[in-house]
Amino acid sequence: MKLAFTLLAAVGRHVLAGLAMIGRVALFAAETVSHLMRPPFYAREFGHALVQIGWLSLPVVGLTALFTGGALALQIYAGGSRFNAETVVPSIVAIGLTRELGPVLGGLMVAARVASSIAAEIGTMKVTEQIDALTTLSTNPMKYLTLPRVLAATLAVPLLVGVGDVIGIMGGFLVGVGRLEFGAATYLHNTLDFLEAWDVISGLVKGAAFGFIVALMGCYYGMHSGRGAQGVGRATKSAVVASSVLILAANYILTEVFFSA
Predict the structure, then answer these.
(1) What range does the domain containing 53 cover?
(2) Is the pLDDT of residue 227 over 90?
(3) Which class for 26: exposed (0-12), middle (13-18), buried (19 or more C-beta within 10 A)?
(4) In a domain, 60, yes or no
(5) How many domains does the chain have?
């Protein structure tokens, strides 16, 4: 009986700690959004974050999408050939990329690159007391550090997802035409016939949500980093893990909302 109460108490402590963490993150997100409508706005920091998050993430997102599109075409062809349904390759590649794989893989790649970078940068600033210096100079760290990065990621990741969708479909096209012997005109015709505007729009909305999550987690764990190199390392690891898990959870919720009917 004593062991059962001990286990129950341990579970309760973890549940309460998890709920407290959710509350802290929610308050952090609300404070970040609240600064959006209040001046000043640091355009230089926003532009720098936009380049770092958007432009410099394009190569890894593009390569991921290209090879994912090619591999998806091969897998769908292999599965479809069992039922004499090889012709569905172009449409399923396009729909799968725009609805799910494009935003999810793009978000995860950005999380690996950006969440870790933001957490390490802000965590190092905290360790070296640069954040305290900003406060001393009457500069709100949330407005100067967090808001530009969160806003930049929310705007940049949908653009990355859109570019990744095009590159991924092109990867499927190259494999379909070059490896699976589809006609180029037929492949493109099937892609355009079955792809709907909402498939693309839903993926872009997911990209915006994932970008918000990635930057928010990077900033949150950076701001709450422990002291020393180990504290910064833990903050970086936690930011990537939390971003990845929340992206997958948010993807399910958004898919349920968009396509449950």
Answers:
(1) 41-259
(2) no
(3) exposed
(4) yes
(5) 1
